[in-house]
Amino acid sequence: MHFPFQKFLVCAGTVLALTSSAASAQRRKAKPAAKPAPAAAAAPVPAPVSDSVALRRIFDEALLRGESYENLRYLTGNIGARLSGSPQAQLAVEWGKTTMEKAKFDRVYLQEVMVPHWVRGSKERGEIVGNKDKGIKVPICALGGSIGTGGKLKAGVVEVHSLDEVRNLPEAAVKGKFVFYNRPFNDALIEPGAAYGGAVDQRALGAVEAAKKGAVGALVRSMTSARDDFPHTGTMRPATIPGAALSTNAADKLSQLLKANADLQFELEMECIALPDEKSYNVVGEIKGSKYPDEVITVGGHLDSWDLAQGAHDDGTGCVQSIEALRLLRVAGFKPERTIRAVLFMNEENGTRGGNEYARLAAANKEIHLAAIESDGGGFTPRGFTVEGDAATVAKLAKLAPLLAPYHAAEVTAGHSGTDIEPLQEAVHPKALIGYKCDSQRYFDIHHTAADTFDKVNRRELELGGASMASLIYLLSKYGL
Fold first, then answer.
1. Under 8 Å CB-to-CB from 291, ≥6 apart: which residues?
2. I need a labelling partner for 111 at 20 to 30 A (CA). Which of 156, 171, 191, 472 fits?
3. 422 in the same domain as 321
4. How much of the chain is in helix, strand and coil states, percent to nearest 5?
5. What pLDDT is stored for residue 95 in this prediction?
6. Is 422 a catalytic residue?
7. What is the C-alpha to C-alpha distance for residues 217 and 239, in angstroms, rounded to an integer?
8. How many CA atoms lie within 13 A of 231 on its CB side?
């Protein structure tokens, strides 16, 4: 029914219909209406926060209640060195799975992968032997994957500074001798990683090239600028002769003595051996995306380490930071729009089988990977990120970088991302492969040595790194690429 001149007045829950005629009578007849039952309180809707506030929340959680440092303390102190195939590597897998489950990720699972099982054996022995068999013992270690010496191996030494130098030497100058590769880091380079890249070919391929000329073994200067007595191990290509690393002090001593006596000899004894492959696992934890669950952002580090120390900076820090990145987002109250995964890759150091298997499974499952982030440069002070992607992708990430400027993690440059995530490029073509970049000036002092221990890690630096990675994931999940 329609009343063209009617007015409605609502007051204290009573509705009075008033008309121009008989208003007073209407007032006498009207009765107050019953008050309606109070409506149930609606669930509070979280107020949206700005990106800067969100990142501040992440960093506050990391610095005040971060768990990376204590997780690393347990991994390095209770498990320690965890070379692929070892019992300690299996303990690390179990630790990783339990730690992710305690962090209450949506899903935690293992990816089976067969890995190499190389064993160093008893401590290696190296000695420079001069006139009248007078010897000088020197710090030395087998390179990963080397064969043993089958007892004591004693021979003359020829010093070189490059693979090409060996290739150009006549066989007679090399046959029956040790080839001693003594090319140092280029200390003029600002980035130590560039110096490492410029020297590491002699470690990887030195024994292979020396064997072609009839050498009995390869001795390699350790991959570092530091002058100390810590030999640095690292993987070498399979060769028919043994390969060992000398500490930088030992390399300097050998070079000096060779100049005085070209006929001196070197005696080496190593008992390393390769055993059959072992079953191991990548450890994967994920938080499902709220809006684009089929798009994946991976963040990871490698769970294995060399066997000389605790594997703290290489790469225990990357593992705990990857777990922490997801935990920070969850406890800070953010539900990522895209699915994010923390992956602890197995066997980066001497085979990259875990990274290859993760990529293979991603392709087999037809997964869409937006981006992958890797932390494998130590747990030092954050600086930013390196990116492998097209120019537009690098530019888009650079536009997000100012949000990280207050935390000194805003450097975004084109560059290498990480060994374990590289296989994803061919397998599923993510838009970006990203490397966590921290201050690397001290990294190669301890890289692959007995000095890579928990006490070398600073708590604040470590927690800041995890927060930087979580912040980038937050932005990538929200804005995509």
1. 337, 338
2. 472
3. yes
4. 35, 25, 35
5. 98
6. no
7. 10
8. 25
Q: The tokens 């995890």 sit on which residue?
A: 466
**Inside any domain, residue 470:** yes
Strand partners, 153: 268
Judge contact between 454 and 314, C-beta under 8 A.
Answer: no
- Containing 91, the helix (H) or strand (E) segment is helix 87-102
Structural domains counted in the chain: 3
Buried-exposed string 87-98: b where 16+ CB fall within 10 A, e elsewhere: ebbbebbebbbe
10-residue averages of pLDDT along the chain (481 residues): 35 34 41 48 58 97 98 98 98 98 98 98 96 89 98 98 98 98 97 96 98 98 98 98 98 97 97 98 98 98 98 98 98 96 98 98 98 98 97 94 96 95 98 97 98 98 98 97 94
Q: Examine the domain organization and report whether 390 and 432 are in the same domain.
A: yes
Q: Which two tokens stand for residue 454?
A: 């928990």
Catalytic pick from 348, 367, 374, 422? 348
The contacts of residue 7 (CB under 8 Å, 6+ apart) are 18
- Read off the DSSP letter of residue 45: P
Q: What are the structure tokens assigned to 162, written together?
A: 């490059």
Structural domain for 28, as ranges:
1-36
CATH number for 458? 3.40.630.10
Closest by CA to 92, choosing from 351, 321, 310, is: 310
Q: Which helix (H) or strand (E) holds 273?
A: strand 273-287
**Cα gap 308→232, rounded to integer Å:** 9
Length of the chain: 481
The type of residue at 285 is: G
What CA–CA distances, in Å, run from 332 to 69, 144, 257, 324, 471?
A: 18, 42, 61, 12, 11
